[in-house]
Amino acid sequence: MKPSPTMARAGPLLTAFLLAALPAEAAAQHRFAVFAGNDRGGGDTRPLRYAADDARKMHAVLTQLGGVAPDDALLILNQAAGEFWRALSAIETRIALARQHGERTLLLVYYSGHAKDGELRLGESRIRLDEVKARLLAGQADIRIGVFDSCRAGALNRTKGARRAPAFAIEASGSEEARGLVMLSSASADEDAQESDEIGGSYFSHYLVSGLRGDADRSRDRRVTLSEAYAYAYARTVADTAESAAGAQHPTFSYDLKGNADLVLTDFGSRHEGIYVPGEAPAGIYYVVDSNGFIAAEIQKPAGMDRQLALPSGRYRVRRRLADRLRIGEIQIVAGQLATLDETSLRDAPFSDDPVKGAMRDETGVRTSLGLGGLVQSFFDGPTRDGLFPPTGMLGIELELRDFFRRGWTWGFDFASGSTRAKVDRYGTLLPFRFSELTAGTAVAKEWRFGEGRFSASAGLRLAFVLMGRKFDEPTVPDQFFATFTPGLVGSARYRITKHFAMLGRGRVHYLLYNVDENRSLGYWELTLGVAYEF
Amino acid sequence: MSSRWASLCTVLAGLAVCGCGNYSNDDLDFQLALPEQSDMEAKMQLAIMRTDSAEYYQATRHAVTTFNNMVAELAGLIDLVRGNVPTSRNGDERTWGPWSLEDQPGWQIRVVMRRSTVSTTLLRMDYSVDVSPFGADDSGWVPFLAGMYVSSGSARTGQGEIHLLVSKAREAGYPVDQDPGLADLVRIDMAYDNADFPFSVSLYVEKLATASTKSGQLDYLQNQDGSGRLTFDWEGQTDTGDPLAARMVSQWIGSGAGRADLTADLTPNREGVVTTLGIECWGVDSVATYSYRIGNSPLGDPVSCLF
Q1: B69-105 pLDDT, tens per residue?
Q2: Inside any domain, residue A179
Q3: Is pTM beyond 0.80 here?
Q4: Nearest residue of B to residue A515 by CA position?
Q5: Is residue A167 located within the same domain as residue A43?
Q6: A226-241 and A203-210 helices cross at what angle (nearest 10)?
Q7: Contact status of A478 with chain B (Cβ, < 8 Å)
Q8: Which residues in chain A are closer than 8 Å to B80, comparing Cβ atoms?
């Protein structure tokens, strides 16, 4: 098997680790866990889509395969900092009790959500990173693992021994059980943690979960250790984010462990319930999609090697993406049984049949913006501007659906009306008139966001209906009107002032075919300044 | 380009050419060239009418009323197109119609206007109201009314002419004689100039030879202060069948007081010997202050005459 470049770079460290690490019995520890996920990070951040889902998935995999009893795991979704501390305290109390009974203990704290300026953001509340790290350092559990999937969470690992590396090895310093603290973060101290609509989660958590379900089992012992899971998540996260607009995302780790036993996080060998991909199946990435349309896990299958993934019983759809089509099929996992994927049961399908429900997730994330502003319109052609369609000021209102079709795209509707006074000179006869205009348009635009969403710029296409009319002071001259559709280009800039309010600037260039006297191709521009309320 | 994009572009292009309306600067030129009744009618203080109003005052009032009625008729024909969107636009030409004529079955009517530039500030318009029997080709259109207008720098002020070509329409078969007002007419020619004071309007009416009055010419002049003059020349026959060429000249000031002189060439061959048949002056109340009739002694004081 030819290793991928990322894995090739990871090779020496990984090999060292695999040789040194001795599998440990996951069941020998009494395991506790706190899972926190929060989609919201306060006024100056944009809501995340999958943070709570990621926490839910981590909770599921560790309670199913990780030896964490459901009673020993607390899941906190979209709750404030106080709830997090209360949950942690409750778990710590149980850990203390377990230790009193002579049990070895492990505490895993997982957080997915916003982080900024050295703080975890749980809605409007904050938790200082150094505070949570200090709490873990001081914890009574024999092994404490912190997993932080959030922007710039690598700040947690700015300590001696912190590494931005594809894998880590635990030193084999003796025969004692491992003890200490391991901190994993999804991104470096200066990076954003990225989410993906296609996989329905953050990259790091998605691959961590997939790895823990079995895909990270490089030793093929049906157990996934912490280092295997990290190496897998690191490689896949870097590879998948390398071409993204935000750039590659590099997970980091730091550890302060003593002992020679690696940490087995999940043991799926004892659980005969999942999906098995035999070695003769085609190589590639298999996505296992649950009944809700979300990717439950993925399998990176090398040629000639089999793969096994632990999944709860249920009906799943399996998707493998080829260059020009999908291979999709269904598989039923019966409780207590391993379902073998039969390649012949898959069929070819166009990309439009993708069972992943990314589009639906986009709809749930639609944000609506209502804007009000002033607008100036003027034609490029001087004679047209002077006597036919004079420059006009208008008041406008607009409704914009952001992330409607898909993330980063907007669909807007606008309406504006205004009037002005002007004169037309016809062979020395000056005719004063009042010009009135009404426009209604719709625009589809691609939006780019900067500065954590505070700034955004967009460009797109617009189709407008314009109704222009004029009433002459001279009573014998009849009123005139002209109505038409005009296609155009639109560019916008938006600056968010507060959580809900934003300043809005918009420029438009339109084509108008004037066809009353003769066919004339005209162009006009519009500038809008206004405020928008987003809800 | 995919078929989906092609379809989208087609729809957008289709919408872009869907413009409709009457929003036109060029149309303004045509609309401003069409004279209104008020632009051409005689404006004399005629409100007062008493049983003892001066006879020539009454005659002048009658002539002005006749004059204005004819102007109204001509303006009414032009009003066919005022305020209506042209049926077709072709460069400097606009056409309204053709429409069928409800009161003349088998006939249709149209209005054609042509624009030409005299200078950068002067515009000339020629227009005609044409009639044609249904089924005839383009050469079948006969001008029933023809007019022209040269602008002078403000709305509907300038010099213009209107010609009602009754004989031409009659020759083409258009049943003009069904209209009692046109039955014995040959043509009416009108010229007006309201570019600057004094405003003037002249109206020439030619009738068939069988009519008792063969022709008449009305010349109207209006000054800025409301004073004016109406000259009415006509040729016809006396009750005894002798030829007659007569002229009445009425003059008035802004208050309505005025004077009228009736003269005629009574020589058998109209040798240019003018005889004054009568003179009458009236005051603001329209009652005669001085009156003279040929063969009679004058009444009143000639000093009371304003002119």
Answers
A1: 888 887 877 777 777 788 888 889 999 989 998 888 8
A2: yes
A3: no
A4: B19
A5: yes
A6: 140
A7: yes
A8: none
